[in-house]
Structures are given as C-alpha cells and as structure tokens.
Amino acid sequence: MTTLRALPLLAALLPASAQAAWPDDVSLRALSTVNGSPLTDTGASRTAYETVVRELGTAIANKPLAPAETLGISGFQLAFTQSVAFLDAFTDSESNPAPWERVHPDADPSHVMWMPGVGVRKGLPLSLEVGANLSYIAFSRQAVVGGYGRWGLVEGYRKLPDLTLQLGYSGYIGNDELELGVMDGTMSVGYTVPFGRKVGINEGSFSPYGGVGMLWINARPQMSTEEQESLGVRAVSGFGNKDSFTDGFRPANLHLGFRLLSGDFQVLAGATLAPRSLSTANVGLGYVY
Fold it and tell me: What share of the chain is helix, strand, coil (3-state, %, to 5)?
C-alpha cells in the first residue's frame, strides 16, 4: 500500500516529458477544452464525466471470479488475475469527442482497460470466507484495491446447486483529481462436477457458475467547488440516502464463469455484463491449498 501511495508523488517529481508516458491517466481538468478550444457546453461535459465515472466504477468493481462455493475452514487461494474492460472510447465526430477522449489530454485513450493483479481468498467457519484483490490499471498511475466477504448459503449437496452471496468494496487510488469507490453485492449459483481416475487421487473438477449483482458507485472530484462548476462535474452516488444520489450509478449486472481445478492448480475464467455500463472479461491462474 505504501508503494501505491508513493506513485502519484513519484510522478509529480518527474519532468513533463516523463509524465507523458502515462497515456491512460484520467484527468478531469482535460474537460476544460474540446479539440483545443475552451469548454463552452458544461452540460455535455457533465454527461461525459458521468459516463466515464459509471464505466470506470463498473470496471474496478470486485469481479465474481470464483465458483459458487466457499473454500472451507482450512482453504486458501492465491491467484494471478487479468481483467479487461471494454470502454466507450470511440469518437462520435470530430466536434463531439467520446467521453473517454474528453478526460485524456491527448484525446487518445485505450479502447480497453487492462488490469493485471493478484487475489487471495481464505475460508472461515460456517461457510464464510474473505478475499482481497490488488490490481494495476495498465499504462496509468492508478491502481485498484478491493476486499469482500462471501457466505455459502447452500453448498456441497450433490442434488442441489451451490448458492453464495458476496458483499464487497473496491477503491480507485492514485488519482489526485478523482475519488472513486464501488460497493458490490452479488449472488452466484453453480455446481461442481468432479472427475479423475480415482476419487481423492489426481482428482479434478469443473465448476460452472452464474448470477446477478448490483453496484453502488460513489465518486467525488478532488477540486474546488468553483472549478467543479466550471468543468460541469460533481459528486455522484448510487446510494439513495446521500445528497449526491444520481440516477444511473446503481447498475445491475450479470456474470458467468467457470473454474477448472486439477489437484491444487486452477484456471478461472468469467465475464460480466452491466447493460447500463460496460462488459468485462476476467481470467485467473492460481493454487488452492
């Protein structure tokens, strides 16, 4: 965590030419100009800002990259993960740049957000488990830290599918212009099919799963009220009890995936789809102990 906090400070000490090597930093102050001309339409700027925040929040949210069963009291998982989010970064026209183009000084963002990372899960008593993720947003000075808890309501029955609930939170760190966090709630249903020559010896399993979830996205620009007004940005929240509640920042999502386990080694793959936001593809390789 100390290293991640030091990234923005290190970048600030670099010369301007070195900072240009970070093409996918999100800059709200880049909204002040459109194609080199000063901003005149704060309404369009606000729409672009809200689109970016909504998609960024969905991209950094905890991914349901696990089967619909918990690890058990003695279980532990370590996995190296990759997540790719597909952004709305295509230009509508020269006079109307796409939202992601407007928050990049060079107006040339990547069309996908690649986030390599590492994740851990630990089983607890009573079909509970906890997990944490740390990911780097490639070609930027930002990172994502997330944590979650899971509860297996139904699991281990051969004639019934597994059913697990997850509640978590992830935060976007390293950006001095935008504070962003996402709470996630997910329900997963799945089943584990064992295979192998002999039960308990070189045994493997295939665990498909799917489910539904909800995200609560919260964002706040890190700048003065006057500057926020001039750029057309503001605090937004998916929580209805907050003054900053804004429609559209509580997107529902669907997910599908599977785990292929052979001995202690596992392959994880999944995808999420938020109809009001974006889609992600997620994979992982790791071990279960």
Answer: 20, 45, 35
Nearest to 136, CA basis, from 61, 65, 82, 78? 82
Distance of CA 30 to the CA centre of its chain: 23
Report if pTM > 0.85. yes
Q: What is the DSSP letter of 156?
A: S
In angstroms, the Cα distances linking 28 to 45, 101, 175, 194 are: 10, 11, 10, 50
Distance CA 253, CA 206 (A): 24
- Please answer whether residues 61 and 184 qualify as being in contact, where contact means their C-beta atoms are separated by less than 8 angstroms: yes
Closest by alpha carbon to 97, among 22, 44, 43, 21? 44
Q: Where are the domains of the chain?
A: 2-288
pLDDT tens for residues 7-33? Answer: 444 444 343 333 444 788 999 999 999
